[in-house]
Amino acid sequence: MKVINLGDSNSVIGNIIAQMRDRNVQKDSLRFRSNLKKLGNIFAYELSKTLDYHPKDITTPLATARVNISDSKIVAATILRAGLPLHEGILEIFDKAENAFIAAYRKYDKGDDFHVNIEYCTCPSLAGKVLILADTMLATGASLEVSYRRLLDDGGEPAYTHFVCPISSIYAIEYIQKRFPDNTTLWTAAVDEELTSHSYIVPGLGDAGDLSFGPKL
Prior knowledge:
This protein is of the alpha/beta class. The chain has helices at residues 13-21, 29-48, 84-93, 142-155, 170-177, 208-213, and strands at residues 2-5, 54-59, 64-69, 74-80, 98-108, 114-122, 130-134, 137-138, 160-164, 167-169, 184-188, 190-192, 194-195, 201-202. The protein has a seven-stranded mixed sheet with strand order 1-11-9-7-4-5-6, sandwiched between helices.
């Protein structure tokens, strides 16, 4: 598995992440969703460079132009609900992509132990396609792993899978690197060093779902 951290080099991503982390700026849920959507655009553009391309002649009003295009069949998937703005940004770039959605959340047992519960999954065929699975936060890696396995159970084996997770913990990266196959890449923009006893990323940014759509009961 490859790991690509777009935050390793200086770019406007730093400004976006700074706004998302800032406890005062993030009170504006519209701006928070907008920033996630922008990140979806950026990640989609960057990973588009990894797709297969071929030349095609395009007839213009004046002549013929040869352009390299990609016919890769893409399935854009997200883990509800925090990943929805990110998903929307990815779809703006890959506007012909099919879609998959999965509802996965932590269900706490005794103490700080928890398991990942899945209540909903809808997925087209993944066979031979490029799967892009997006979620805003990668804390332990458990939700991403369970969601990925469920999508493959329902949709079949993709040719390649890209995971888009703007904020990741070093713990989760190490966890999924041991469990995911070679034909996968994790795209992130910030890697944080600490998890709390409840497996929240520090410094992180808080609950991305609540910041996007309001608190839940």
